[in-house]
Amino acid sequence: MARRAERVLMLLDLLRGRPVVTAAILAEALEVSTRTVYRDIEALLAAGVPIRGEAGVGFSLGQGYFLPPLTLTEDEAEILAFGARVLSIWSDGALAAQAEMALTKIRAVLPKAARDSAQREILWAPPWVTRQPPAIDLLQLKRAAQQRRYLRITYETLNGTMSDRTVRPLSLSFFGPVWLLIAWCEDKADFRCFRLDRLRRSAVLDDTFRDEPGKRLADFRRAKGEAVAREIAGGVEHG
């Protein structure tokens, strides 16, 4: 029996190859029970894959879901697979699931040689690395930055003091093994970097902000550069 990721990829290939496929045919081809097929399809639906199902008829993929085959070299395929794997290990459950699904979609449109090369995992990130997963929802923070929505956070400083801030989230940056939230802090009227392992609470507010000169991510990079982020990743306080 194939591993879950391989099985989901095979399921997508089966759906792509026919207009309609019954659960029984999918179960036979994948060598699993129909219950497992339904669970896999529910997972794909939750990830945004447009699968249509009709009782007594079968399942089909939404039109235009698959891209034409990607012209990636074997090296490029391996690098993409490795990057998705690292993100799935060093992030929380929501981002990890997104990374795994992105990898499944990429594999589905790779030429066979590139797909086989990626699945060999010569570049490998072991999944049992000891780590403390972020207590904060990374996907929520990412979407808040994308939608330009203010955050209300509670941050624990190095001396153990709790500080409540209203911030403009600008970027999530990874300095292994530390995740940083780079933000414009309304309370301090300056840029601040917050280690996610010290972020005790985060609430997305309804209020949105506009890009303003002097308060943008590009302004942070010009004014502070990577030096500040690297310092805080090493333990220097910048919150």
TrEMBL record:
<dbReference type="InterPro" id="IPR013196">
    <property type="entry name" value="HTH_11"/>
</dbReference>
<dbReference type="InterPro" id="IPR036390">
    <property type="entry name" value="WH_DNA-bd_sf"/>
</dbReference>
<protein>
    <submittedName>
        <fullName>Putative DNA-binding transcriptional regulator YafY</fullName>
    </submittedName>
</protein>
<keyword id="KW-0805">Transcription regulation</keyword>
<keyword id="KW-0238">DNA-binding</keyword>
<dbReference type="InterPro" id="IPR036388">
    <property type="entry name" value="WH-like_DNA-bd_sf"/>
</dbReference>
<keyword id="KW-0804">Transcription</keyword>
<dbReference type="GO" id="GO:0003700">
    <property type="term" value="F:DNA-binding transcription factor activity"/>
</dbReference>
<dbReference type="Pfam" id="PF13280">
    <property type="entry name" value="WYL"/>
</dbReference>
<feature type="domain" description="HTH deoR-type">
    <location>
        <begin position="4"/>
        <end position="59"/>
    </location>
</feature>
<dbReference type="InterPro" id="IPR026881">
    <property type="entry name" value="WYL_dom"/>
</dbReference>
<dbReference type="InterPro" id="IPR001034">
    <property type="entry name" value="DeoR_HTH"/>
</dbReference>
<dbReference type="Pfam" id="PF08279">
    <property type="entry name" value="HTH_11"/>
</dbReference>
<dbReference type="GO" id="GO:0003677">
    <property type="term" value="F:DNA binding"/>
</dbReference>
<dbReference type="InterPro" id="IPR051534">
    <property type="entry name" value="CBASS_pafABC_assoc_protein"/>
</dbReference>
